[in-house]
Amino acid sequence: VAIYDGTTSSYDDPPGYSYYSDWERYWLACDGIHDCVGNQNQPWIQILAVDYDGPAVVVEGETDSDVLPDHCPITISIADDGAGVDHVEVYEDGVLIEATTGELDQGQYSYSDGHLLYCKTPGVRTRIVVYDETGNMSERSWSAFGSGDYSDAGDPYSYPNPFNLSENDFTTIVTGFEGNDISVKIYDFGGELVISGPANSDGTYKWYGITDGGKPVATGVYFAYCQASDGTHKIVKIAVIDK
What rounded mean pLDDT belongs to the chain? Predict the structure, then answer.
C-alpha cells in the first residue's frame, strides 16, 4: 500500500500508529500481518511519491505567446509539483544541448529556487523537457524567430478533415511553416475569399468553419492558402460536410 500526501515525516512509534488522526483508516494492519501458517510480522510502511504529472515549465512574466523573448538570458521557472525535479533537458531544433542532473557550476539551473537561465540561439525552436523524481515528464516548446523569419516544417494538412460543423468546433490547419508573418487565407471552390488571418508561430491556424462575417459556411470543398513572409506558399484542401 502506498500512501502519499505530498509530505515526508519520521515516525518514533512502530508502524501501526497514526501520525495524523485522520490517517487512522489507513493503518488497518496495526496488529501485524499473518500468513497462512500462523507466522506474524509487523508491516513496513513506506511513504512514496505517487504522481502522474511532471513539473510545469514557464517563462517568468510570460504572456500567452509561444515566442520566446529576445533578451538573454531568459529566466525559466520549473514549478515542482511535489514529486521533486530529477533533471532538465534543453533541445534546440531537436538536438540536446544541455542536460542538468544536478547544480551547475555556471549557475544555469538552480534546484534550490527552480530557475533555469537559458540563452536561445536565434532562429531555432527550443524544447525544454523536465522529469520529476517519479519518472513523469512535462515539456514546453517555443519558437525563436525574428520578424519575418520562418522555417519549412513539412507538408501542410488539417485535422479533422473532413470537417463536420455539427461535431467539431474547429479544424486545425497545419500550414507546413513555422515562424512569424505566416498568413492563412481560406477560399471556397469558386475562388471567393471566405476568411483570413495570421497563423500561430508554430504554423497552426484554427478555422471555426465561419466567414469573416461570422456566418457558418456551406458544405463543400475549401482551400487554405498558407503563405510565408517571402511569398512561399502551400495549399490545404478541406472538405466541410453536413452541419
Answer: 75
Q: Give CA–CA dist 188/39, Å, rounded.
A: 79
Q: Structure pTM?
A: 0.48
13 Cβ contact partners less than 8 Å away, ≥ 6 residues apart:
none
The span from the CA of 116 to the CA of 88, in Å, is 9
On the 0-12 / 13-18 / 19+ scale of CB atoms within 10 A, 46 is exposed
Summarize pLDDT for 154-203 with one digit per residue, the tens.
899 999 999 998 888 899 999 999 888 899 999 999 999 999 999 988 88
Beta bridge partners of 88: 100, 130
158 SS3 class: strand
- Quickly tell me which residue has 515562424 as its cell: 179
Secondary structure of 175-195 as H, E, C letters: CCEEECCCEEEEEECCCCEEE
Residues whose CB falls within 8 Å of the CB of residue 47, separated by 6 or more in sequence, listed in order: 2, 3, 4, 8, 9
Residues 6 or more apart in contact with residue 118 via CB below 8 angstroms: 73, 74, 76, 90, 108, 126, 128
Instruction: Give me the sheet containing 137-143, strands edge to edge.
Output: 95-100, 85-92, 125-132, 137-143
| Chain position carrying cell 509487523 | 42
Instruction: Evaluate whether 150 touches 104 at the Cβ level (below 8 Å).
Output: no
Q: What is the pLDDT of residues 31-84, one digit of tens each?
A: 556 677 877 766 555 444 455 667 777 776 665 566 677 677 778 888 776 777
Is residue 106 predicted with pLDDT exceeding 50? no
Contact 217, 188 (CB under 8 A): yes
Residue with the larger pLDDT of the pair 125 and 22 = 125
